[in-house]
Write a structure and sequence with these properties.
By secondary structure, the protein is an all-alpha fold. Helices cover 72% and strands 1% of the residues. Helix 7 packs across helix 8.
Length: 503
C-alpha cells in the first residue's frame, strides 16, 4: 500500500489533472454560492463530462467540485443571509450580522480559512482511518454486509427529521425503484412490463439528475419572477486573511471540536452537513464563556459552522471508499463516478486501486489549497455571479441535464426517466418527503438484497453458521436499538407537539 503513495502523488501532479482540479473548485464555488445550485447538483451535471477522462482525472474533478461546492455556500450565507448550500445554514447566524456591522471581509476570510482547515483535518482522519477500516472490513462476508446495509438503511430513515413515516416512505421508494430490472443471483425479470429498456433497471445517474437537478430547476422556476429583495454588498475587500493570527489561535479548540463533530456526522449515513454545522454551532455556544454574543456577529459561530461542514467531506469519504456506502447525496454521486471509472469501493480498494485512492487523497489536499486561494482572491467574481438572473441559468442547466442523461448510455429512455424523476422529486418536496433516503435506499437496497440472498444460501447449508459471525450480530442488535430509539423519540416529539397545540 505504501508503494502506491508516490505513484498516486505523481498521477495528480500533471498539468491536466491540476487544471481540472482548479476548474472543478472554481465551478463548485459558483454552484455553492448561488442559492439552489448545490455541490450535489454540480457533481451530477459534470459527472457525464468525466466519462472520457482517465480515472484519476475524472475522480479528481468530482472531488474538486465537492470541495468547492461545500465551501462556496458561505458566500451567499454571509452576504445574502441565504445559505448557498444546506451545510451553510448555521453560517448565517453570525456571518450575516458580521456583514451588517461592516465586517463582511472578515466574515468571508474567517469562513474561507476555517473551511480550508476543516477540510485538511478531515483529510488527515480519512488517510489514517480508511486503511484501518478497510483492513477490518476484509473480514466482512454476506452476513456482515447484509446487516451493515440494514443498519445504514435504518439509520438513514431514523435521522431524516421529525417525521419518521415520511423518511420510511422515501427510503422504501428508493428500494422499490432499485428492484426494477434483472434480479441478482438468478437474473429474473422484475417489474419490466415487457419493456426492453427496463431490463437493465434505472440508472443511478438518471435518478440523481432527476431528483436533484431537474427538481431544483422546477422549484426555482416557481420563484424566478418574484422580486428579489436581498441586497448584495459589492464593495467587499479581504485584507490578508481578514483577521489576525491571535484571533486565529484563539479558535483552535473551536476548530478541533467542530471538525471532530463534522467528521463523525460525515461518517454516519444520511445526516448531512446541515446537521453537523448546527451541532457544531450549538456545541461552540454551550462551551463559550459568552454564549449571549452568539447570533450578534462573532467569528466563533462562523468558525464552528464552516469547520464542521468541510471536515465532513473527509468523514463522508471514509465509508464510501472502504465499504462502498455513501454518507450523503454528494458522496452518492461520487460513488457513481468511481463506478464509471472502474474503481470498486470496498475493503479491497487499497489493493486493487491503491494508486487511484492515494491520488484522491492528494487531489483533496490540492483542492483545499485551490479553494483557499480562489475564494480569497476571487471573491468579487463570485459576488457578481450572485447577480446573474435565474431565468438565464435554468435553461442552461436543463440542457446540460439532458446531455448528461443521454451521455450515460446513449438511450432516449434515460432522458424520459430523468424528467419523470424530476417531477417525482418536485411532488415529494410538496409532500415534504426528503430525497436523501430515496437515494440511499436505491443504493443500499441492492446491496442488502444480494447479500441477504447469499446469507440465506449459507444458512441452508449450515443453519448454525450465523452464530459464528459476531460482527453481523452486533450490526443487527444496533439496528434494533436505533429503530426502537427512533420510535420512542418520535412518540415523545408527537406528544410534546400535541401538548403545545392544546395549550
Amino acid at each position: 500500500m505504501l508503494a502506491d503513495i508516490i505513484p498516486g502523488l505523481m498521477s495528480v501532479l500533471t498539468p491536466t489533472v491540476l487544471f481540472f482540479i482548479i476548474f472543478g473548485v472554481f465551478v463548485g464555488i459558483i454552484f455553492g454560492s448561488i442559492p439552489g445550485l448545490t455541490a450535489t447538483m454540480a457533481i451530477v451535471m459534470f459527472l457525464p463530462v468525466t466519462y472520457t477522462m482517465s480515472p484519476i482525472e475524472g475522480v479528481s474533478t468530482l472531488v474538486a467540485l465537492y470541495v468547492g461546492g461545500i465551501s462556496g455556500g458561505l458566500i451567499a450565507a454571509i452576504l445574502l443571509n441565504i445559505p448557498g448550500t444546506p451545510s451553510s445554514i448555521a453560517t448565517t447566524f453570525d456571518g450575516t450580522p458580521m456583514a451588517r456591522k461592516g465586517e463582511a471581509g472578515k466574515a468571508l476570510g474567517v469562513g474561507v480559512v476555517f473551511s480550508f482547515c476543516g477540510t485538511i483535518i478531515g483529510l488527515l482522519v480519512l488517510v489514517l482511518v480508511s486503511p484501518l477500516l478497510a483492513a477490518f472490513a476484509i473480514k466482512f462476508g454476506p452476513y456482515e454486509y447484509c446487516t451493515l446495509a440494514l443498519f445504514a438503511l435504518s439509520l438513514v430513515i431514523s435521522l431524516t427529521g421529525r417525521d419518521l413515516v415520511k423518511g420510511l416512505i422515501s427510503g422504501l421508494l428508493g428500494v422499490m425503484l432499485a428492484t426494477v430490472g434483472l434480479a441478482p443471483v438468478d437474473s429474473a425479470k422484475r417489474f419490466t412490463f415487457g419493456m426492453v429498456d427496463l431490463n437493465a433497471g434505472f440508472s443511478l445517474l438518471t435518478l440523481l439528475i432527476g431528483l436533484f437537478a431537474i427538481t431544483e430547476v422546477i422549484k426555482a422556476a416557481e420563484d424566478v419572477r418574484k422580486p428579489v429583495t436581498a441586497k448584495i454588498e459589492t464593495n467587499v475587500r479581504i485584507k490578508g486573511f481578514g483577521f489576525s493570527f491571535a484571533e486565529f489561535w484563539s479558535q483552535k479548540l473551536n476548530l478541533l471540536r467542530s471538525s471532530a463533530i463534522g467528521i463523525v456526522i460525515g461518517i454516519l449515513p444520511g445526516i448531512g452537513g446541515a446537521i453537523s454545522g448546527m451541532l457544531a454551532y450549538t456545541a461552540a455556544k454551550n462551551q463559550s464563556k459568552h454564549p449571549e454574543k452568539f447570533g450578534t456577529g462573532i467569528m466563533d459561530g462562523v468558525v464552528a459552522s464552516e469547520s464542521a461542514n468541510n471536515a465532513g467531506i473527509g468523514g463522508a469519504l471514509i465509508p464510501l471508499l472502504t465499504l462502498g456506502i455513501p454518507g450523503d447525496a454528494a458522496t452518492a454521486m461520487l460513488l457513481g463516478g468511481l463506478m464509471v471509472h472502474q474503481i470498486a469501493p470496498g475493503p479491497l480498494i487499497f489493493d486493487k486501486s491503491g494508486v487511484e485512492v492515494f491520488g484522491i487523497f492528494f487531489a483533496l489536499a490540492i483542492s483545499a489549497v485551490a479553494m483557499l486561494i480562489i475564494e480569497l482572491f476571487g471573491i468579487k467574481i463570485f459576488i457578481r455571479v450572485l447577480k446573474v438572473p435565474k431565468y438565464l441559468l435554468l435553461p442552461v442547466i436543463m440542457v446540460l441535464c439532458v446531455i448528461g442523461a443521454i451521455g450515460n448510455a446513449n438511450r432516449m429512455f434515460d432522458v424520459w426517466s430523468v424528467m419523470v424523476f424530476g417531477v417525482m422529486g418536485y411532488l415529494l418536496i410538496k409532500a415534504k418527503i426528503p430525497h436523501v433516503p430515496m437515494i440511499l435506499g436505491f443504493i443500499l437496497g441492492p446491496i442488502f438484497e444480494l447479500n441477504f440472498r447469499r446469507a440465506v444460501q449459507h444458512a441452508q447449508i449450515d443453519p448454525s453458521g450465523v452464530f459464528s459471525h459476531p460482527i453481523a450480530i452486533c450490526f443487527f442488535v444496533v439496528t434494533i436499538i436505533v429503530v426502537i430509539f427512533s420510535l420512542r423519540r418520535q412518540r415523545k416529539e408527537a406528544a410534546l407537539l400535541k401538548a403545545s397545540e392544546e395549550s
